[in-house]
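Researcher: Here's the sequence for the chain we discussed earlier.
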Amino acid sequence: SWQTGPISMSFTPDGTLVARLPGGRQERGRWSIGPDGRLHADGTGRDQATDAWVAGDVLTIAENGKGMSYRRASGS
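Model: Thanks. This is the structure I predict for it:
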């Protein structure tokens, strides 16, 4: 599980993605690493491929040249 501000995301080994958004809204989807090495996720209703990497306790997801960093959630 990863968090930045009011947004958190959990990636489970079975390929489930759960995003918790401001206001308590929750989005569910699927995730995988494609043959291109990119993170593929459909939590927004459409498949998106992004560059993603982990360095220490920080997950960075970059799309269109802009990255968003998430910190490993406590207990993860």
